[in-house]
């Protein structure tokens, strides 16, 4: 219990530090990069805006103040759960993000399910039939998955399953059928590493003394494989999952664009194009928050999978 | 020779297919009901391979030939399912590496229930009461051990829990593969005392694999000496000790540790000062 609390406490401190550094750096970087939302706002339909109009708008959004002051005001508002308003749509940022967050989380979960199914099945197949034909199939699946760019795979899936066979919807969100193609695309893109890692780890676990002891006790093959060996091989996979959450969120963005999935990825891409600073800033804050929270869950999962950590005999 | 044979190994031969090497050959060994039989020899002589052949735990690249009759059934010829039933409920095995006796992330109690219920049809509670009883019989704090992971116990406790686990299945033969090697002397002795007790109480047979000649003299009824994959001598402990015939047994006996005389120690100490 003490170990669990200390993990939670350290992650919360980490969360505070990370979110402040991350938000400050992105705040400054956004201001110094070329492009200006004010000009984007004024230069509509070839109407030339005057310098005075520009100054007036800058003042309205407080862009004329020093960066530190702007950041200070923003962070104070964040503490009151106010992420500001979008420059373009004038809607509160928190509302825009919250309305799209469930779609992204749903898609990510779908991708995770596919990832889980693919890596467990092909990873186990490769390890149990090491050097035989199922192992080669597992290797080919992993190689194929690693060499196909996810957006191209998405296009192929749309072409065959939606256009040619007319089995699944092309884009959008709504029914369970809408989940299938984006989830497969996301899962397949991430699976190869996990398949290979699980295979290697499972092969070495299957040769460990405790598996030999379980065989000597006359337990069934399936029991030994799924309840003893597989669980013993999960730690590196959990570690890799914790490390790859960042790239997963990046991957989700591509998939959301491809399938016109109304999630956060689509929102952030249009916001970056229009230099909608408050939305970008809010998005980064929320994503940073999600990454730290997921890592906390990953750390707690370690405790479930390997109780030795709870005893302090091994470190997270 | 052996009145009522429980297990009989005949012309066992194991070859490594990858290295094209004969690992053990012409191994003939018999264990009677209720007998404690020692299989001794140095590391790499093929003792553990013999035990693993009985348990069918050899790596796939090793080829086994010969016959191993357990209660009249050739364990090498039965199908995997039948063999699995034989393991645990007929033949139990205790390993040298006590850390590997149990899966480290599953509580010992749960593993005992799992094993008991694999071999006997019964409810969880019935299995639990059997598990607690056998743990108690092994002189362990049954409830604590039942709720512990293996890494929370000492080596001696884990080995006793492992014996309790095989006892729960009422085996006729327990194979102990260097079971005390990784333990300190006191814990090792205690574990061996329990093996003696079990044999006297249940009448099961024990195959004790060890490189420790002194242990074998003290604890076994009969001994086999193994060298370079072959059994070179067989007999009662006194015979092996005093009337051995094979040069290897002679060499082995001469290596038996004897305490140095008091005088020689004092002399050495005087020099070093």
From TrEMBL, chain A:
Residue ranges spanning the membrane: these are: 12-30, 105-128, 140-163, 175-195, 234-259, 279-305
InterPro entries reported in the protein's UniProt record: BPD_transp_1_N (IPR045621), MetI-like (IPR000515), MetI-like_sf (IPR035906), Opp2B (IPR050045)
**Which CDD domains is this protein grouped with?**
TM_PBP2
Q: Where in the cell is the protein located? A: Cell membrane
GO annotation, cellular component aspect? plasma membrane
Is Ribosomal protein a UniProt keyword of this protein? no
Molecular function via GO: nickel cation transmembrane transporter activity
Per UniProt, what is the membrane topology? Multi-pass membrane protein
Q: Where is the ABC transmembrane type-1 domain?
A: 101-302
Task: Provide this UniProt record's keywords sorted from A to Z.
Answer: Cell membrane, Ion transport, Membrane, Nickel, Nickel transport, Transmembrane, Transmembrane helix, Transport
**Which family does the UniProt entry place this protein in?**
Belongs to the binding-protein-dependent transport system permease family. OppBC subfamily.
Which proteins does it associate with, and in what oligomeric form?
Answer: The complex is composed of two ATP-binding proteins (NikD and NikE), two transmembrane proteins (NikB and NikC) and a solute-binding protein (NikA).
The protein's name is Nickel import system permease protein NikB
Q: Which organism is it from?
A: Mesobacillus subterraneus
Give the taxonomic lineage as stored in the record: Bacteria, Bacillati, Bacillota, Bacilli, Bacillales
């Amino acid at each position: 219990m003490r170990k669990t609390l200390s993990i939670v406490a350290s992650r919360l401190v980490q969360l505070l530090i990370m979110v402040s550094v991350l938000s400050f750096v992105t705040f400054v970087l956004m201001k110094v990069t070329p492009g200006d939302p004010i000009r984007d706002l004024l230069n509509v339909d070839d109407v030339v805006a005057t310098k005075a109009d520009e100054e007036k708008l800058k003042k309205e959004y407080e862009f004329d103040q020093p960066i530190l002051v702007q950041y200070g005001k923003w962070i104070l508002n964040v503490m009151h759960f106010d992420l500001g308003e979008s420059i373009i749509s004038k809607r509160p940022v928190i509302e825009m993000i919250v309305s799209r967050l469930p779609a992204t989380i749903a898609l990510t979960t779908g991708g995770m399910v596919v990832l889980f199914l693919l890596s467990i099945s092909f990873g186990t197949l490769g390890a149990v039939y090491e050097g035989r034909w199922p192992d080669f199939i597992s290797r080919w699946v992993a190689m194929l998955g690693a060499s196909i760019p996810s957006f191209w795979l998405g296009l192929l899936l749309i072409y065959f399953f939606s256009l040619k066979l007319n089995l699944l919807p092309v884009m959008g969100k709504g029914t369970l059928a809408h989940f299938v193609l984006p989830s497969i695309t996301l899962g397949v893109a991430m699976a190869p590493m996990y398949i290979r890692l699980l295979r290697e780890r499972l092969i070495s676990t299957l040769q460990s003394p405790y598996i030999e002891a379980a065989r000597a006790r006359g337990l069934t093959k399936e029991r030994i494989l799924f309840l003893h060996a597989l669980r013993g091989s999960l730690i590196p996979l959990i570690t890799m999952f914790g490390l790859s959450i960042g790239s997963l969120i990046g991957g989700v963005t591509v998939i959301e664009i491809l399938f016109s999935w109304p999630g956060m990825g689509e929102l952030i891409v249009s916001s970056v194009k229009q230099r909608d600073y408050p939305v970008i800033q809010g998005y980064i804050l929320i994503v940073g928050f999600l990454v730290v929270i997921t890592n906390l869950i990953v750390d707690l999962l370690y405790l479930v999978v390997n109780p030795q950590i709870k005893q302090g005999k091994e470190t997270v | 020779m052996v009145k009522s044979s429980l297990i009989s190994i005949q012309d066992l031969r194991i070859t490594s297919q990858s290295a094209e090497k004969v690992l053990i050959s012409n191994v003939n060994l018999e264990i009677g009901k209720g007998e404690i039989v020692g299989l001794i020899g140095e590391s790499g002589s093929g003792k553990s391979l013999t035990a693993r052949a009985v348990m069918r735990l050899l790596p796939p690249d090793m080829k086994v030939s010969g016959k191993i009759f357990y209660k009249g059934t050739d364990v090498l010829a039965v199908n995997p399912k039948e063999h699995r039933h034989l393991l645990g409920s007929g033949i139990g095995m205790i390993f040298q590496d006590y850390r590997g006796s149990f899966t480290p992330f599953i509580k010992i109690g749960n593993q005992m229930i799992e094993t008991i219920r694999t071999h006997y049809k019964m409810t969880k509670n019935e299995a639990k009461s059997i598990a607690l009883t056998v743990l108690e019989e092994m002189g362990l704090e049954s409830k604590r051990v039942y709720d512990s992971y293996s890494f929370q116990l000492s080596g001696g406790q884990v080995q006793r829990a492992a014996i309790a686990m095989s006892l729960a299945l009422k085996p006729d033969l327990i194979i102990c593969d260097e079971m005390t090697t990784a333990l300190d002397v006191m814990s090792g002795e205690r574990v061996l005392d329990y093996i003696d007790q079990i044999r006297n109480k249940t009448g099961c047979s024990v195959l004790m694999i060890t490189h420790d000649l002194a242990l074998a003299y003290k604890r076994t009824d009969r001994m086999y000496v193994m060298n370079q994959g072959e059994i070179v001598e067989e007999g009662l402990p006194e015979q092996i000790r005093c009337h051995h015939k094979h040069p290897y047994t002679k060499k082995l006996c001469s290596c038996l540790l004897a305490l140095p005389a008091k005088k020689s120690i004092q002399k050495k100490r005087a020099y070093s000062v």
